[in-house]
Structures are given as structure tokens and as C-alpha cells.
Write a structure and sequence with these properties.
Elements (H helix, E strand, L loop, with lengths): L4 E2 L6 E7 L7 E6 L6 E3 L2 H17 L14 E9 L2 E8 L4 E5 L2 H13 L1
Antiparallel strand pairs: 1-5, 2-3, 2-5, 3-4, 5-6, 6-7
Length: 118
């Protein structure tokens, strides 16, 4: 179980790069300050599981590198708190200058889907 604690600023900032999908399928890659190679995902639920796994790994390591991926991310995700498998943080959509805060993973998914429908 994850305890409630403040996460150091910048340590859990991820780039979410979405790729064109078939129909309503969302797929893409995840990058971050401590991710050596972009991590592919094929659904929002898989993206959430991979991000949670990366945050667990990041807490155990002290790497500090920012890999580059061509182009700007579709979303920038900053996780500020984690408690009981829930997250609180900010989601930025740089292309449209939109920023939203979320208080749970469900709220994060809802915001992402709403932004993508526009």
C-alpha cells in the first residue's frame, strides 16, 4: 500500500505521447526523467498501470536524466501525491494551453478523455 507523502517536485513528471489509434483506442508512449527508453502502452488502463510501476521504481532509484523524444508530448503529467493507489496532480495539454488538476486516477482518465474528444 502506498503511504500518503509529498513527492519531490519534478521527480514524477511524465510525457504522454499519443499515437493515432483505431477507433476509440488510445495508445502511445510514456517518457519521464528516469525512464531510459519510451514505454509503449495500448490503452488508458495499461498507461495507468505502467505509470504506477514507474513511480515505484523511481522511488527506489536516484537517476536524474531526461530522455528526449521527437516533438512535444500530447500531455504532461505531474503526480504530486500518491495515497492508496490514487494520485493527485496536474495534467497539462501544451498544444492547447490547457491545465487541469485531478484528485484521483478516475478523474485523470475522465479529463484526458474529455480533452481528446474536443
Amino acid at each position: 500500500m502506498h503511504e500518503c507523502r509529498m513527492i519531490p517536485i519534478g521527480s514524477n513528471v511524465f510525457g504522454i505521447y499519443l499515437e493515432p489509434g483505431d477507433g476509440n483506442q488510445i495508445r502511445g508512449t510514456i517518457t519521464g526523467s528516469r525512464i531510459r527508453k519510451p514505454i509503449p502502452f495500448t490503452s488508458l488502463s495499461r498507461m495507468i498501470l505502467l505509470l504506477d510501476e514507474q513511480m515505484d521504481i523511481e522511488q527506489e532509484t536516484s537517476l536524474d536524466r531526461r530522455p528526449s523524444q521527437p516533438g512535444n508530448p500530447t500531455f504532461e503529467l505531474e503526480i504530486l501525491f500518491r495515497q492508496n493507489y490514487s494520485w493527485q496532480g496536474r495534467l497539462r495539454w501544451p498544444e492547447n494551453g490547457v491545465e487541469a488538476t485531478f484528485r484521483s486516477v478516475l478523474e485523470l482518465i475522465t479529463i484526458m478523455e474529455l480533452l481528446l474528444e474536443k
